[in-house]
Design brief:
By secondary structure, the protein is α+β, with helices and mostly antiparallel strands. It is built from nine helices and four strands. It starts with a strand and ends with a helix.
């Protein structure tokens, strides 16, 4: 069995964006598997109140993300519309063709956390989809299909069953590493 670093993410998480940027700089020999989840759904399953809804945590989160972005020289801008409902774009991950998944992930993360766009605005989303060579009409039809809805629900439930409670989370050898700042520990486990 080939070793793989699992990356549990939701586009709504600024820390998942920062982790994604770190992953992009890893050597190609490190196999990474992106595992989409619905963070709000995961929080509900775990009984957690998201930091976005706790004023003091939100303020610290903004400062913290800016510190991390500056340290690693990532182009990052806190989104004015945070938090947005990521349901449709997370379903979208399951609906787009595998040949454009990487571009889809890059485009959605950058749109939200680099370009400060409202990715729930249909006009903006249509432009982003076209940039990824994804047919918008087909995208909007597919994300309404029960099979796609179920895939996201099941992926979120599966993550929760594994003990995952937030994003980003890395998993390797059945060990959980929560937070963008735990990537190096996950990589140590990957190398062991």
């Amino acid at each position: 069995m080939t070793k793989e670093l699992e990356f549990y993410f939701d586009f709504i998480s600024p820390y998942a964006y920062l982790a994604h940027k770190k992953i992009q700089s890893l050597p190609s020999s490190i196999r990474t598997s992106y595992k989409p989840i619905l963070l709000g759904g995961l929080h509900n399953l775990e009984g957690i109140t998201a930091p976005a809804f706790i004023k003091s945590k939100l303020k610290n989160m903004i400062n913290d993300c800016n510190l991390v972005a500056k340290k690693f020289n990532f182009n990052f801008k806190w989104n004015d519309k945070f938090p947005l409902n990521s349901l449709n774009i997370m379903r979208g991950y399951f609906s787009v063709n595998s040949t454009v998944k990487d571009q889809y992930v890059n485009t959605m993360f950058d749109a939200y956390w680099k370009n400060n766009l409202d990715i729930t605005d249909e006009k903006i989303l249509i432009t982003l989809l076209k940039d990824c060579k994804i047919d918008p009409d087909q995208f909007f039809e597919t994300i309404k299909e029960q099979m796609i809805k179920d895939k996201l629900k099941e992926a979120t439930k599966d993550a929760h069953k594994k003990g995952i409670f937030g994003a980003p989370t890395f998993m390797i050898n059945n060990k959980i590493f929560w937070g963008q700042d735990r990537l190096e520990y996950a990589l140590d486990e990957y190398s062991s």
